Amino acid sequence: MIPIFANSAGIRVSEKLVLQGGCWTSLNLKTRYGVVVHPTHGPVLIDSGYGPSVTEGRARSLALKAYARMTGPALVPDGAPDVVLRRLGYSCDAVRTIVLTHFHADHVAGLSLFPNSRIMACRTTFDAIQARSEIANLRHGIFKELLPGDLTDRIVDVAGLKDVQAPLRLGPGKDLLGDGSLLAIDLPGHAEGHFGLCFARLEKPLLYAVDVQWVLKAVVDQRLPGFPANLVATDAEAGKMSAKRVAQFRAKGGDVVLCHDPEQTPYDLPETSNA
Ligand SMILES: [Zn+2]
Asked: How far is the CA of 148 from the centre of ligand 1 (A)?
């Protein structure tokens, strides 16, 4: 069960902003989401990337318009989940399960394409989002307007699933698909309820560490997240512990993929047909 990652949008930033001790070189960050095809669950989506619900449309709130201007994602035309799924031979209706690693805009923007999927996510975080004002959510980088209105009935709480030990001493993870192949690994700090995904059965176990770090170089060099990542983190100290845990997993022989690293990975759909 090898995951495939697609790039929904490019974000141009200076390396200095995303890597402690980086230089002023401009990077074109990716915004990944994934698809994994399970023998019984079928195609499972991992987050849903950026989409036009963030960058277009008059109905957006002023805050969302400002966020889109500030982050400046350039949507990849062939990188939308429906296009990518079609390329892989599936319709959006075939996706019965979406794993949502956290509720930031660049992970939830495509959810509206999948009105019938169950969403595996952190229920406590979702309930907190529902209970807060728009302004309070804004401080967490969350826009309720991007979340489907019936999400409350479709969420499966990851916290309620069985614990399974992940390989390479990564620790326990929640068994998302019931067979130990895909484990949700608690990686707190970046956002409330943020978790990574361990593909435990691969010959070289893979950890999709999502937004623990912006670029893989920070994991490889074991540089801890600093300014300005700490500004957006909900818990900077927890984020450092999570970054260490990911670095240790890699040092023990595991593979690591991040949401935003600019380099192509062996798990990415080829850029030529995805750009
Ligand atoms: Zn995030």
From this structure: 18
Backbone angles phi, psi at 74, to 5 degrees: -100, 105
Convert the pLDDT of each residue in 42-53 to its tens digit. 999 999 999 999
CA of 121 to the centre of ligand 1 (A): 14
> Under DSSP, is residue 194 helix (H, G, I), strand (E, B) or coil?
coil
Q: What is the pLDDT of residue 201?
A: 96
Q: What is the reported pLDDT for 272?
A: 55
Cα–ligand 1 centroid distance for 105 (angstroms): 8
> Rounded to the nearest whole angstrom, what is the distance from the C-alpha of residue 191 to the centroid of ligand 1?
6
Q: What gap in Å lies between CA 254 and CA 196, rounded to an integer? A: 14
| 138 CA from centroid of ligand 1 (Å) | 13
Cα(212) to centroid of ligand 1, in Å? 8
**Regions of the chain with pLDDT less than 50:** 273-275
Q: How far is CA 53 from CA 165, 194, 207, in A?
A: 38, 22, 29
Minimal CA–CA distance to 18: which of 30, 10, 27?
Answer: 27
C-alpha 216 to ligand 1 mean position (Å): 15
- Residues near ion ligand 1 (CB < 5 Å) are 104, 211
Q: pLDDT tens-digit profile of 203-253? A: 999 999 999 999 999 998 888 776 666 667 788 899 999 999 999 999 999
Domains in the chain, CATH or no CATH each: 4-267 (3.60.15.10)
Identify whether the C-beta of residue 254 lies closer than 8 Å to the C-beta of residue 167. yes
